[in-house]
Write a structure and sequence with these properties.
This protein has 74 residues and is an all-alpha fold. Helices cover 31% and strands 0% of the residues. The protein has a domain of 37 residues: 2-Layer Sandwich (Erythroid Transcription Factor GATA-1, Chain A), CATH 3.30.50. The protein contains 2 helices and no strands. Bound molecules: zinc ion. The site of zinc ion (ZN) has 8 residues, from loops. InterPro entries: DNA_gyrase_inhibitor_YacG, Znf_NHR/GATA.
Length: 74
């Protein structure tokens, strides 16, 4: 089954924020507001990622709780 007539306009993907048809000026979003919302989400995701490298700095060499290496020798 073939369709000789091409569609008048390509279907636009829905806005990833609210699902409404995207506007060309704000692609892939339907409005600047939705674009800002998505951007805000993206940044909050970034900040939520835990930084493992900071854990290592919690243990200070002068920390009395630090296990002495000599205890391991035996
Ligand atoms: Zn939207």
């Amino acid at each position: 089954m073939t369709d000789p007539t091409s569609p008048p306009s390509a279907p636009r993907p829905p806005c990833p924020t609210c699902g409404r048809p995207a506007e060309t000026a704000f692609r892939p979003f339907c409005s600047k507001r939705c674009a800002d919302i998505d951007l805000g989400r993206w940044f909050s995701e970034q900040y939520r990622v835990p930084d493992r490298s900071e854990d290592a700095q919690i243990f200070d060499e002068n920390d009395p709780r630090r296990v002495d290496p000599d205890d391991e020798v035996g």
